[in-house]
Amino acid sequence: MDEPSRIGLTTTTGAKLDELLEDLNPDQGVDGVRLIKFDLYRLAVALGVKKEAIPLPLNDKSIPNLRVVELDPDGVLYTSVENSGLVPDGVPIYEFIERLAEQGVQEFYQVYQKTGQLPLDDYFEE
Amino acid sequence: MKLKEMTIYNFMPYKGEQKVSFPQHDTQNVMLLFGDNMRGKTSFLNAMRWGFYGLALGRHLRAIPRINLVNIEAATEGDWSMSIALKFSDGDKGYELRRRVEKKNHVSQPKADADFEESISLRIDGEAKSGDIIENHINQVVPEEISRFFLFDGELLQEYENLLVEGSEQGDKIKKHIEQALGVPALIHGRDEFSGLLKDARRVQANDAKKNIELKRFAEQQNQLEIKLTSSENDLKDLLLQCSDVQMKVDDIDDELKNTEAVQRKKVQLEGLSSERKATESQLLSLEDEQRELLKSAWQDVLYGGVAPLLRDLQARRDSLHNVASEKAVLNSKIQTLQKSLDDPTCPTCKQNIPDENMQPIKDQIDVLKAEEELSIVNPEEIRTLNEKIDKLSKIRSSGEGRRLLHNADKQRKLQVQLIRVDTQLDELEEEIREYDTDHIMRQREKRDRLVKQLARLDGDIETCSGKIGKNTKEQDHIATLISKSAGGQGQKSSIRVNLYQDLESIFSKSIDQLRDSLREEVEHYATAAFSELTTEKTYSGLQINQNYGLSIVDQAGRVLKERSAGAEQIVALSLIDGLNRTARKAGPVVMDTPLGRLDPKHRGNVLKYLPNMAEQVILLVHEGEIDPDRDIESFAERIGVRYRIERISATESRIEKSN
To answer: Looking at the 3D structure of chain B, how many domains does it have?
Structure first.
């Protein structure tokens, strides 16, 4: 099965991710650790796998601005998703990863808009 | 002297005319005037002081300007006049003293003392006295010098502690007042007058000496010393003026700072909270950084939870495939060995041929083993894929990011709660001090520190200058003696005068010391008597007086107590006042404003029992916190002649009412 070499998010969700990063990161010019798109993208995928989500195909065309070799240099995401048993037949793994990210980022955004923070308790409770 | 009646008109909070009659009975000699703080007790004391001496005292014993003495309400209504009329007796004579001020006709809105006109009248047994001698009459009956001890502000009791501090400026001031009250100034003035006369006499003597060739040199020296003395005296005057000016500034700042003490405390608290806020914010920033750092790799921790069992399955599968491969190899080896027997039917041990009937079971076994071998399918591709997956999934590492993120979030929550608490406190404090210029207060503190340093320098200069004057005077005395004893000067009128004034000045100086010593002994005696009545501690043997009239408590072993409580200080101060009062004059009233402020109930009881015996008339201006009208009065109820109460009409108006 042909795997895409670039994946991304829809325009709307991409904008939401940018907004989220702006809120989570320190103001411009202020020193401190900064999150980048990859960080939240990977987290969204991992959380999707954890809760065994099976997202629907994207309702819009994605902007494939993330190179897979940069996003998943060791193929770890790929292998995890591949072995999760969640990927429907005939769907390339990275396409499924893209769907997980799209859904995960949207959820991050919604909950952040509502509460002003990411629900870390929900995400990481053992 | 016995007070009969005081009529107050428009004085401070007392608007209009208000009359108070003092107790005349020999044993029911106590008058109580109850009033809450800020209602006018001290104004009542000031009304009496102003009536007698034309002076009302505020903080730091500074005169209150006339404009602040006139009742504000009355002044607003256009009545700028005020007066105090006092009726009293001394011996068999009756006195009627009336002091009045009113706005000058041409002044529309008074702004300074000069905008008022003061008039005073005195009648003795109905006969009017002329204005120029009224003051003398008053001073014969109630000398102003002793007013501090019979018109007594209890809130100043703590000032008397300063008498125990050598070199304390306030102590020196009080000492001067005490000596004025005790009559020492009479001798001091005498000595100073002789000093002046001596100075003049020396000058005349020097002029006479100039005419004599032998004494010309002394005359010249005397002139030079005279010039130096005048210059040093001028310097001293100047330094004293500067000192008093600086002290006044310090007092003003102290007043201002005292009023803003609470604000200063809050400002310090505010600064502490601001630092706490900064530290909390900085901790929060660090935690946010740590949170982002953890979020970067948290995805691995999330996957790790799901991947771990998968990884275990994959590893088990791989192990099982490896086992199958091993078993297959073993089977192959067995088959090959057995096949060899078929191909070469010689026993490897005995080298004999294996019989045919024994070959069939070997063939059968080979068939079974081959069947088994065929069933053990190992796909090397599958093993390779499994290895690849295991390798990749093994790269997923967890550093416990999830747990650490939760811990981090918990810390952030706590700090945010702390931040809200600090912010709330900051808002409250800022609101409380919003109206105050706290920077100005801090500047004033710095200014005060500078002024105090300046005072210390001035004190040093004054000491040096006084030393110079003393040395100069000694030299002058020496030269004057040389002139007097010389052949040319002996018998001369000017020399005789110098000798006479030198002797008289010396007599007065010694008398001052003697009088001081005897007065101190007398004050110590009376104060000790009062103290033994007032104190509840029976192991104290009495009081010991120092050069400044400061009193220390002495125990039965004759040791001076180093530390004493606020209550003990007040008892000692009251004993001193009694001692001074009894030493200064033999009879008269005592008016005390808030004398019991810092006393416990037992001491208060003792003081209340003792006060009626302190003077012929005792007028106590008290609040109910000092004397409980229901409880405390019992112990001296039979001594109360009359009771009044100050009723509040408004913030600027009070009325004195007789009460039962």
So the answer is: 3
